[in-house]
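On clarity, I found the account of how folds are encoded harder to follow than it need be. What matters is that the chain and its backbone geometry are given together, residue for residue. I therefore recommend that a typical entry be quoted early in the introduction. An entry of this sort, consisting of the sequence and the corresponding backbone structure tokens, reads as follows:
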Amino acid sequence: MRSVLTCSLAALALAAVTRAEAPQARRVLILSGAEVMLPAGQTLDATIRGVLTDSALGPLEFYSEGIDAYRFHSEEYEREFASFLRRKYQDREPVVVFALTDIALHFLSRYRDRLWPDAAVVFTNVESKEFEARDRPPWATGIVDDEDFTRTAELARRLQPNARRILIVGGSGERETTTSERALRSLRDLRPPIEVAVRSGVPIEDFPNEFGHLSRDTIVLFTMMFRDSEGRSIVSKDAARALASAAPVPVYCVYSSYLGVGIIGGELFDFEFAGRTAAEMGARILKGEPVASIPIRDGSPRLRAVDDRALRRFHIPERLLPEGYELRYRQPSFWDQYHWRIMAVVIAVAAETALLIALLVERRLRRRAQDESRQRRRELAQAARLATMGQLAASISHEINQPLGAILANAEAGEMMLAPTNGEFAEIRQILQDIRRDDQRASDVVQRVRRLAGRREIEMKAVDLNAVVETVVRLLRHEARRHDVDVEKDLGRDLPRARGDEVALQQVLINLAMNGMEAMAEVPADRRRLILQTRAAGDRVSVRVSDSGKGIADEDRPNLFTSFFTTKANGVGLGLAICRSIVEAHGGRIAAANAPGGGATFSFSLPVWKDEQADEAGVAIPAGAAIPSR
């Protein structure tokens, strides 16, 4: 007892040391100024997580929060949101906070000291003018970038050389309006000059009427849209898709998150690059580098990309694209896409012809095998019927032998009573002798029938009951389909071999399985399940056959294994009796019970094979053991 207590205390101490030595996961919070599910935010979030996870920084815990300022913008809301974050993360203070957009950076400038005073901040999607009037905080670093509309407008004028007007489309929220005004100011300085107009806050359902009749000399530049003029919240990417679908002219943008929805493209802010660069800065902080020593990065290279599908829609030649532009969503020509298939047509035709011939041959062989299999099953059924007749003959011969014996005794008694000296009864004595002779001959015939239908000796061997179950499942595959029954196997692992006759045990299992299938005839097809299970229990091996039928009636259970007892309209009543005889001849036991979930379970167990039994003599098995009838 003392040694056990000592071992337990040592194990607890070792576990405590292991927990103490395990590195604690550091927490990383990704704080978006907008809703966390917006496409741009999702791209930044996924990129940051991926880069930090691949940077071998030890265990990290990631959290994502969205201020959602485009839809909820008030000082009271920000205070409540900050209070919520303080309560939520009071025991989970992050080491690094990624601030996505200037909205998130402003929020942290106001509330960081109350939320996470020791956390370093890495920002992105922040304009350079943010730090023109003030120095950057010592607890923050990141990427500053300014939106550039002029290069996208230059691309548009190159692709639409006859354009005379630029229409800027955006939302009616404060941020969208500010962005549209900034685009308007920058595009007015284009040379040669071009007319520039702004259309803000048009509801999406009005896009076809508002933008569906634009003239061909119009360039459409989409900025962002999170709110329309009726105050409804909009997913900016959905607005870009609707505008590209409604407008009869190309639509351009400056953000990579809009590419692929029908927008033709432009010189785009690359959110993947921004997320990757911000994550690399965060990794330096997590490795121990002071945040103040990491300089702010000025901008990111623009992603110069256009959608090939939009080019084709508006019949814009690819040669008009400036050098360095990436053509995305390119639709390859039929030859580019399928040339290897076209080149392989002749070979494919020849191969398919050979395959068809082989399949026809295989089909013929398979049908022949199926016909042979059905013939074998018919032969087995015939053998089973013959075995049944043998069993019946044995029973009938037993019953007939008694009256034959009585007739013989009476004939002999009559002969003794008629004295041979009395000539008057000579003819009667002759009749009695004929009766005795014919009776003896009939008795001999009955005895021969009994010997023919009697017991036979077979050699007992080591049997793998799992293999027996596999064989029976294969043999009953056709019957299972015919009865629409799902047969399942639950075979025990490392099952010891049993002592028995494999063929006789197969017939027992076939009998029980067929009974189970027939017992489920009135059950809906989707509930017909037959389970064959094998298990080892000490020095015995058991087999269970469970169905999902109606189960066994209480009044029928005592007579199940009695000869000629049956619950079937056309049953003979010998199947289960023969199964019991075979199992008991193997030194086993057979039983039946109702399953807890419904249905019946028949099980039998056999002794495990022992090596010293290899030289034992055979055992007698009743003839007619192949009768599949309950």
User: Anything to note?
Assistant: The first strand starts at residue 26 and ends at 32. Residues 345-417 form the longest helix (73 residues). The chain has a mean pLDDT of 83.
